């Protein structure tokens, strides 16, 4: 009980130290409010207001129908251009898509000669290029089928698509939650590492060394105090910013997500302390943290699926905590999974966290002995 009391009081001291640091407080508020909202509403993967031009060399009712079917908000108002202007306008970046309708298009279609429509795409706008091409292909096929029902060949299979968990395929539903997950990782490493370096820069580490406390107690106090701040901030962000402001439904149990976050924070906060033990200043700590956080977030599965990565890289990332946390968070918050589904990820987080904590505690003890 005496050791628990010491850890509790040291943790309270950490909370007061954090409160007295306006920069870190502002970072926490910004990260779980404005940063989540702007990323969810600003970075979209679906096609929206894509610039499109049409080269209409047929000037028939069918070609007019195809042009008029390119509607807002997916596309801007189609612009009629000449065939010789296609390369020049696309090189200048004026249009993402250029649809070229050949002469005698409607006549050939009615005669069953299967005319082709050329679609030029500026693939530097990669996300819009891929999705927009599918949109335009579907639009052209559907409008041609309606206008020329007699030329439509019946297909043997009728494909019916039903999207689960995100029926309207809105990218904001994905990016909002994943932004909260990535921010949990970022702040867990930064806050715990900054807490140790702040002690060193302010000279209070010497005060701790003359007190009857052990490195283990100091480390646990920093972990639970900073972890508590992050869990509370992430939960409020999900409830207020994600659910209320953005209208993104959270399918699963918030309590299960909080419990899983505590297990995850055990490992990443230990990582923050480990990095701080090899840093001599806050600037050096920041330079070391940036590449580590970038790699952890980009290769965790929160930006691109793990399956799209090379197999050797997937294997390597399984020894880091972020992919397991992203996987179980997606299962809980998107699909409403319970403990019987996510327990393998929790077990992996516990094992990885124990290793990280052991290594960090050894390094932290050596750093304190060196300071003496």
Give a concise summary.
Helix content is 66%, strand content 4%.
What does it look like?
This protein is mainly α and 372 residues long. The chain has 15 helices and four strands. The chain has helices at residues 2-19, 22-32, 34-42, 61-68, 86-91, 105-110, 126-147, 171-202, 205-209, 215-245, 254-277, 282-298, 311-317, 321-335, 339-371; strands at 52-56, 79-80, 97-101, 118-121. A four-stranded mixed beta sheet has the order 2-1-3-4, covered by helices on one side.
Please describe the structure with a list of short key phrases separated by commas or semicolons:
single chain; 372 residues; mainly alpha; abc type-2 transporter like fold; 4 strands; elongated
SSE diagram, text form:
Blueprint: H1 2-19, H2 22-32, H3 34-42, E1 52-56, H4 61-68, E2 79-80, H5 86-91, E3 97-101, H6 105-110, E4 118-121, H7 126-147, H8 171-202, H9 205-209, H10 215-245, H11 254-277, H12 282-298, H13 311-317, H14 321-335, H15 339-371
Parallel strand pairs: 1-2, 1-3
Antiparallel strand pairs: 3-4
What gap, in angstroms, lies between the N and C termini? 28 Å
Please report the number of helical segments.
15
- Please tell me the total number of domains: 2
Residue fraction in strands: under 5%
* Major pleated sheet: 4 strands, mixed
In percent, how helical is the residue content? 55-70%
Strand segment tally? 4
Structural class: mainly alpha
Average of per-residue pLDDT values: 84
Q: Round the Cα radius of gyration to an integer and report it.
A: 28 Å
**How are the strands of the largest sheet arranged?**
2-1-3-4
List the secondary-structure elements in sequence, H or E: HHHEHEHEHEHHHHHHHHH
Specify the overall morphology.
Answer: elongated
